[in-house]
Amino acid sequence: MIVRVAALAAALSAAACALPAGAQERTPPLDKLQSGAAFLSPELRAQQLDDFANPGMLWVERGAKLWAAPAGASGRSCADCHGDARASMKGVAAGHPLVDRGSGRLVNVTDRILECRTERQGAPRPASESNEVLALGAFVAHQSRGVPVAVTIDGPARTHFESGRALYTRRVGQMNLACTQCHDANWGKTLFSERISQGHPNAYPAYRLEWQTLGSLERRIRACLSGVRAEMLPYGAPEYRDLELFLMWRAAGLAIETPGLRR
Amino acid sequence: MASRIQVPAEARRGELVEIRVLIQHPMETGYRTDDTGRRIARNTIRTVTCRYEGVEVFRADLSSGIAANPYLQFTTVAEASGTLEFEWVDDAGVQESARHSIQVTG
Amino acid sequence: MRRRHFLVGVGAAMLLPQSALAQASPVDELIRAATHGAPARKARVKLDLPVLADNGNSVVMKVRVESPMSAADHVRSIRLLSERNPVQEMVTFHLGPRAGRAEIASRVRLAGSQNVVAVAEMSDGTFWFDVANVIVTLSACIDES
């Protein structure tokens, strides 16, 4: 199966191809998709589902406060433009990343937040992994909780998607492993005492016990790179966006769970 | 420190009331090092206290052995309407408190 | 591997259980330190910890002590002690009759596979305990993110 996927990826990226989107081979197939929550212990799964005890909710609550607070030279809050997030942000995280019509860049929710903070609110650019940005990101994604993941890979998103898939199937690092080898070929199996998940992004930003804090999908991918002893690309690298688009496409139909609880 | 405290708004006199507390705090152990190899100073929440109309009904003396973003779940008996005051202090001397009212009927 | 503790009792006296190997195990030492040498009995206390922890950074813990929690007969305190953590005294919960029930849940940190001991001190000065063994493995992948 790995050989088939790699060959297909090579064929598609080599030349302009007229294959319709539905013809891409999906690994896992849509009817076999399982969120990372399915690979948690019962204790951890119960903790994620408990809105009070889930530590990620501390960031969601902080995000709600930040949403309503004026920021930067503009003195405007997110709410001043976007109103009630429950309405305006519903479905947003489920549909990102996408190609921004204005800039032509592939952006995710964090990029949107950073852009608003700097361009529209006139605030200094916060770090993408700062508690402020994580809180807003968790709050916004939380408004899509329960909404099925649905990103577009047509039009200007196509090249990003192909690039993302190539990254997903490329072996990297001292251990010479590609994402697909763990998350397609060996999901459900045990590595040391941990069950390998299918590697879906639908619960991010998530509270990871390993980090003892909430973190972004970028941070999680960096952790995987570190795990196979590959160079960790810096935060904001376009590879992370391309890979995120591919991962979201791969997770089509899974419900957003943010804030997830993971090991 | 952000915190979440769950206390039922109402209870019957004599009823057992469940209280849940979640405090955002790194509970830094003092054994970790940053990426320059320097030790990160210990900073944990030392004590969490719950007073019911001024009377201490629960106290926890924590250490680095309690996970980051500490969670505590305990009970108290609903005696009279009034205020539950929660207070906690960490190694850095930062002290915070929160109040919740409870209506006790019967 | 759990060691068997045998009660060596004489009449109504409650003695510190001795390990089968007849030398003080770390668990016995932890209990002795918590009770300042007073005897403790393995009963009435129930310490719930998973057999296999997801991650040593956060392990769900629940501890319960059978007690009427009346003014005359209640739990004064519950201490959690670790066999292997750098800080042995993990937490002490101070209760009293106002608690209504001696049942507390929290999340603990465990530095490796070990025994965890919960020692309860009653209002009559007696000590009771429970031991739980938790396997804590290393993370499968090294995370330097």
Please, could you describe this protein's structure?
The complex is a heterotrimer of chains A (263), B (106) and C (145). Chain A has helices at residues 2-14, 42-49, 56-68, 78-82, 85-88, 109-120, 131-142, 157-169, 179-183, 217-227, 238-250, and strands at residues 98-99, 106-107, 190-191, 194-195, 206-208, 213-215, 260-262. Chain A is mostly helical and 263 residues long. Chain A has two domains: 2-6 and 33-51 and 149-262, Cytochrome Bc1 Complex, Chain D, domain 2; 56-142, Cytochrome c-like domain (Cytochrome Bc1 Complex, Chain D, domain 2, Orthogonal Bundle). In chain A, strand 5 (206-208) and strand 6 (213-215) form a beta hairpin. Chain B is mostly beta strands and 106 residues long. Chain B has no helices and eight strands. Chain B has strands spanning 3-6, 10-12, 16-23, 45-52, 55-61, 71-77, 82-90, 95-105. Chain C is elongated, with a radius of gyration of 16 Å. The relative contact order of chain C is 0.23. Chain C starts with a strand and ends in a 9-residue tail after the last strand. The longest helix of chain C is centred in the first third of the chain and has 10 residues, at 26-35. At the B-C interface, strand 5 and strand 6 of B face strand 8 and strand 9 of C.
* Through-space gap between termini of chain C: 34 Å
Q: Strand count, sense and closure of the main sheet of chain C?
A: 6 strands, mixed
Can you identify the CATH superfamily of the domain at 41-136 in chain C?
SoxY domain
* Largest beta-sheet details of chain B: 5 strands, mixed
Helicity of chain B, as a percent range: under 10%
Distance between the termini of chain B: 36 Å
Q: How many beta-strand elements of chain C? A: 11
CATH architecture of the domain at 41-136 in chain C: Sandwich
Q: What structural class do helix, strand and pairing data of chain C support?
A: mainly beta
Which features characterize this protein?
heterotrimer, A: mainly alpha, Cytochrome Bc1 Complex, Chain D, domain 2, three-stranded mixed β-sheet, 11 helices, 41% helix, globular, C: 145 residues, six-stranded mixed β-sheet, three-stranded antiparallel β-sheet, disordered N terminus
